[in-house]
Amino acid sequence: DSASFLKDFIYNELFINNEWHDAVSKKTFPTINPATGEVICEVVEGSKEDVDKAVKAAKEAFRLGSPWRRMDASQRGRLLNLLADAIERDAAYLAELETLDNGKPYSVSYCIDVPMVVKCLRYYAGWADKWEGKTIPVDGDYFCYTRHEPIGVCGQIIPWNFPLLMQAWKLAPALATGNTIVMKVAEQTPLTALYVASLIKEVGFPPGVVNIIAGMGPTAGAAISSHMDIDKIAFTGSTEVGHLIQQASGSSNLKKVSLELGGKSPNIILSDANMEEAVEQAHNAIFFNQGQCCCAGSRTYVQENIYNEFVERSVERAKKRVVGDPFNLKTDHGPQVDDEQFQKILGYISSGKKEGAKLMCGGGVAADRGYFIQPTIFGEVQDDMKIAREEIFGPVMQILKFKSIEEVIERANDTKYGLAAAVFTTDVNKAHYVSNSLRAGTVWINCYNVFGVQAPFGGYKASGAGREMGEYGLEHYTEVKTVTVKIPQKNS
Amino acid sequence: CHCISAGMAHELAARQWSTTGVARQHWTTQIPRVFCTLLFINNEWCKSSSGRKMAVLNPATGECICEVEEGNAEDVDKAVSCARRAFQLGSLWRRMDASDRGLLLNRLADLVERDRLLLATMESVNSGKLFLMAYFVDLMASIKTLRYYAGWADKIQGKTIPVDGEYFTFTRHEPVGVCGQIIPWNFPLMMLVWKIAPALCCGNTVVLKPAEQTPLTALHMAKLILEAGFPPGVVNVVPGYGPTAGHAIAHHMDIDKVAFTGSTEVGKLVQKAAGKSNLKRVTLELGGKNPNIVFADADLEHAVQEAHHGLFFNQGQCCLAGSRVFVEEPIYDEFVRLSVEKALKRVLGNPLLANVDQGPQIDRKQYDKILELIESGRREGARLECGGVPWGQKGLYIQPTVFSEVTDDMRIAKEEIFGPVQLILKFKSMEEVIQRANHSQYGLAAGVFTTDINKALTVSSAMQTGTVWVNCYNAVSVQAPFGGFKMSGSGRELGEYCLQDYTEVKTVTVKIPQKNS
Fold it and tell me: Which ipTM was obtained for this model?
């Protein structure tokens, strides 16, 4: 049970300057176990004053001549690798904590989330001393080169759907390039990130390089986005809040902004697709992580002549999904993260019914306590229904019918979002034509939700700006400086 | 600013001019007749939807050159629809080979070269900059920038990436889409080229608003863009005012990216507008209060020369202007003396004439602002060494002004003046000057003059600026990236780096039966 599991958990305070702090306001908030609705423990709640403290520490750690600024790039890489080692060592504990706080099945936390965190850290550890500027052949008697400098103090605001992984995606490129960080973790899921803070200290990152605060969006998050001493903000979360962040940058100090926001990603199944594969992939595309994925394949477009069979098979597959206690290794599907999401999803299901979509399975609450929702499928969905336009962020699958490729491309692109998309087909020409035509930052062909830390990920349009992961991820944590030196005589 | 340092540009211009017989034949001090005064949308010329026009003034005389159609939100809408259509999958522009985009940019460069004299004259008359500068610096840089990006067009490369698992992964570097571009009046033609060249190179379509003060060369460029053969809708030019046309662009729901060069104050509005509207991507090139640091071991005369041109170039109307000259104590008095001597030698007059060094400021608003700041310098106790007052009977001229004994807390040391006002401050040690130079919300450029290799490398590393010059100033070249730290902007223009900001990266992952390395 939570109480005994957590009796040794002391990392529920603010992590500033490698020390654990109480909040200036002395406030705390409870973090809930979504499988039971019970409080796990109280966590210190940071607000503006605490953000100020953290920024001061991060700024000091970034000062010219500081240990962090003087450190060899390769040593920054070494520290990232040591952090990866420590996380691997504590993998089982971290996976348990993640499942307790977020509700995702333990088998998933342990086999997917934690290993991906480790891979992300190791990948960027390798980049630290390979992120190179250039020497440039300008006109005239000059020697010209660029330095790839860190931007400075980076505010990072992460969501609750993949707490550990989102933390790693943010920390790794920022630290590899030499920045310092003030991170606000989601109030729904602060525990694993705070535990990792203790590991950050353990492996030897200098004080002030990473500062982590649990707190609320409208207080701590707002303080970060409008802070005059934060040089860049990276935010992953809803498009709605993304708008506020960009505005706050304009209202404050024009801090650089990168955003990973929502999506309503189209998953297009052509009639020549491998039916079994497509059904399986489309199922996981929407139901993975209880539907709580920015890139969830939430509009499944199926070509006319295979539509009925596809729907039938999808329903069969959904019914096989095991909903239950996330700590049971047989469970596929845990609870939604909190009551707010729970109510919102039920609201969308209701609107689907009202607007005339055909409820094929699920559609209701799945347990007496906790925030469990049945895997739900709607057929006969039209593009103008709310469930086809708005991001539900829950286990609700929309299956829509289409006739031709040209038609489905237009319908797929007819959204303000542009995060991901997929196409299932065995025809090479169709595969390339469709993937070229979709306005989305990631397109999967005959697969879904394939993430490699080596490959960039991010949104077109209102799904975000900038890319995370891959070499591209380093660009957004870099300030390029051009140095031009006059020389007596230039030779090529 | 072509890659000759500011000081050399001036001398080179004068020298070349006198040896260019052809130029002397065709050179004129006549105001050229202006033929392009309409909005340019979808490769067609049209009147503004409101019927209104803007007067375009000659700042050297205060007279009206001509009137130009005034675009507003409705015209921006029209332009955006055309740009969107030109960007549609399957369009001429989307189907064009990348190398052909490069060919078109080179062809445009050829046309600019053909019309160089006309464009330089028009630019000088409309903006007040010296004709010689317009011809040898602005036009030269514009032509080179077009040719540079013409070369990049078919070299914009994605990657294939070794991900884990049985997958083949690659990235496509796609154009972002419809790009709104808002440019200033200080280098009208060059700013236009800096914006359209990388955008077109990467395959985007453009809706560009030139500054209301200086639309003429932009409209002539539109004519050349048509002549070069760019398909309709690829480039659209809509002259208009900031609060109407500019506002419409920044808030437009169907513009995918906005690039703005101008004041930090307006930069903030653009960033907010993006957040309010559709989260369009934003790149900004804003103001600066650039430190120019001269150590006692510098070549004194060279440093004085570079610092002089580093500030007074373009009548001080440069985001890069070296407006805080920090001089090491031992050489301070001599530096001030030589700088004042140089400033006093500066000749003001008709910018079309060869023997003139300085033209008028761009408009009344700037003129008043500069004089107000000069007044604040006096009031706050800086020492006025020369200038400080207007010049001439007509036109918006201000005498080259030098202040010494300036301290960091004075308004003139903190706020961007954007005029011919050089400030000379004293410092004792390297650590001190680094700290003072960095103590600014801005971070665009810096200069350092020294013969000591350690000082050069230490100071250039320490400057929180996008560009650092060592023993030179204003050396800008299209191959090298340019942009701001902090509130001087975000993103980089020029160089390969600029392409990133006009590219949308798509990752494609294909499931394959068996992966092999």
Answer: 0.85
